[in-house]
């Protein structure tokens, strides 16, 4: 199950979202594979957050720097995809600078949540997933009925369906809680508690903005959707030279009513 896009793009250029994606990719390329001349393990232990090191009073900067360190193309690719899907509408509501502060604070709080779950772990914690989880938490509160297109791989077929954000993100959060409760934090290769902490931080840090917009009245006014029109999607059609162009409905040019 992989989110692909939401159906209510903000209509504004999400400069901070794009800048964060570019910065994460630039940092990743600087050391992968060992672009700095240092080993990957050294990068993780220097810039990632090692709970045992933090407990001893070292690496106090790492809850922040760990947000920009990733363990591979799949790791950074998923995080940046989720940031792109859920970041633009939240940035449009918060404003560029507030969104940047929100993102970084969620990342730090997520890292600290993971730290508290395993104070003496020697496993480095790295990745933007805690900060991105915060963005998802804010999106969950602000736009619960937004439709997110999700791809499903069904063994012999790949299908795309639209799911409401509250359902998709609730399922995701439940999986993180299940993973955190069933796997020892000191030995898990996934920072489940960072995901949980980031998501909860995102919800809590967005409450004030939600209330200022009217709280439940904001939901009722826009039906739980971002205050932007639903996007039009064009489906390309390959046709023979000289053939007449079919009507727009047949070509798949339409405005979604979801």
From TrEMBL:
Any one of the GO BP annotations: proteolysis
GO cellular component, one term: membrane
Localisation per UniProt entry: Membrane
Native source species: Pararhodobacter oceanensis
Pfam families: Rhomboid (PF01694)
GO molecular function, one term: serine-type endopeptidase activity
Mode of membrane association: Multi-pass membrane protein
Descriptive protein name: Rhomboid family intramembrane serine protease
Record-annotated membrane-spanning stretches: 15-34, 67-87, 99-117, 123-143, 150-178, 190-210
Keyword Transmembrane: yes
Keywords assigned by UniProt, alphabetized: Cell inner membrane, Cell membrane, Hydrolase, Membrane, Protease, Transmembrane, Transmembrane helix
InterPro entries: Peptidase_S54_rhomboid_dom, Rhomboid-like_sf
Occurrences of domain Peptidase S54 rhomboid (ranges): 60-210
UniProt keyword Transmembrane helix, yes or no: yes
Superkingdom, taxonomy of origin: Bacteria
């Amino acid at each position: 199950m992989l989110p692909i896009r939401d159906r209510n793009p903000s209509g504004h250029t999400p400069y901070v979202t794009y800048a964060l994606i570019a910065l994460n990719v630039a940092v990743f390329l600087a050391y992968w594979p060992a672009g700095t001349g240092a080993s990957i393990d050294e990068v993780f232990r220097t810039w990632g957050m090692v709970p045992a090191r933090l407990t001893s009073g070292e690496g106090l900067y790492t809850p922040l720097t760990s947000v920009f360190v990733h363990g591979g193309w799949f790791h950074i690719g998923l995080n940046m995809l989720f940031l792109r899907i859920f970041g633009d509408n939240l940035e449009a509501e918060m404003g560029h600078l507030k969104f940047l502060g929100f993102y970084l604070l969620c990342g730090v709080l997520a890292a600290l949540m993971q730290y508290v779950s395993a104070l003496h772990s020697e496993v480095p914690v790295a990745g933007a997933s805690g900060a991105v989880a915060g963005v998802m938490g804010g999106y969950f509160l602000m736009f619960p009925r937004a439709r997110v297109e999700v791809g499903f791989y069904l063994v012999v077929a790949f299908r795309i369906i639209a799911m409401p954000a509250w359902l998709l993100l609730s399922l995701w959060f439940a999986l993180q809680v299940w993973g955190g409760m069933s796997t020892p934090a000191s030995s898990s290769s996934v920072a489940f508690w960072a995901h949980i902490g980031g998501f909860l931080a995102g919800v809590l840090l967005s409450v004030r903005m939600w209330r200022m917009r009217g709280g439940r009245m904001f939901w009722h006014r826009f039906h739980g959707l971002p205050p932007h029109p639903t996007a039009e999607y064009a489906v390309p059609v390959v046709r023979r030279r000289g053939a007449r162009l079919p009507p727009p409905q047949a070509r798949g040019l339409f405005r979604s009513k979801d």
